[in-house]
Request: fold
Amino acid sequence: MAAFSKPEAYGRWMGRWSERLAPGFGRFSGLAEGCRVLDVGAGTGVLGATIVQLFNQVEVVGVEPSVEYVAYARAAHLDPRLSFYVGDAQALPFADNSFDASLALLILQELPDAAVAAGEMRRVTRPGGIVAACQWDFRDGMPMTSLFWQAVQEVSPEAVAQAAAARRTPSGYSDREALAQLWSEAGLQSPETSRLEITMEFASFDDYWTPFLSNATPTSSFAGTLPPAVRQTVTGTLREKLIGSGPDRPFALNAAAVAVRGIAP
Ligand SMILES: C[S@@+](CC[C@H](N)C(=O)[O-])C[C@H]1O[C@@H](n2cnc3c(N)ncnc32)[C@H](O)[C@@H]1O
Reply:
């Protein structure tokens, strides 16, 4: 099954985090009334739906390679200011200078060549327009996944090594310096970075854990590939880390993302 083909499962896995992150990223990007925005790697349409709540006179075009996500986004977001198309960040299907701003939320880690995508975002943005991206700080700012990888490491270090070899562990563009360098090398002017922090509530351990078994994305589908005995021990280890040994209960996790914005020349 192709990665990113189950939009409902994505919502329970990462979409709910995106919803929390999108308003801060939208504000950081410096959008203004009247602008035409490209959402690169739009997924299920979370960022566009947020931007049309922040601004009245705005148009957001989402581009996303998953046909299933695009179909879902079109059905879920009926606001006429939003539209969604199938396309690749590394070969954007738009003319030069056709947007006032190009934004990418949580996609650079998925790309074979993020520098090509940054160049494409620059190309389709008019001179003086904004190009911005936002990524989880995978070093210490995304506990939903880092606690999982810690638990797997404790139970089965060889499984983590295999995942890293298959490039399934998160990496890349997790810090402000790396993002600023990517933007500078793409020729984007005056790159500025920021750290965005959010909190996510979970109703129970199952609310946290079930999405790991949902095959929603390359990372989330990894838990399902663990041998059953390993998976069971990982589950117990994670549960202990998150809520201790008592009965199931609600809990919250803090998360941090890094963002960059620059000006198209
Ligand atoms: C973690 S999701 C983020 C989606 C959305 N931006 C959000 O915040 O909810 C990563 C997205 O990157 C998309 N993606 C993967 N490869 C891509 C590519 N070459 N070009 C554009 N998007 C890509 C995936 O299909 C997926 O929708």
Remarks:
- Residues 7-28 form the longest helix (22 residues).
- The mean pLDDT is 94.
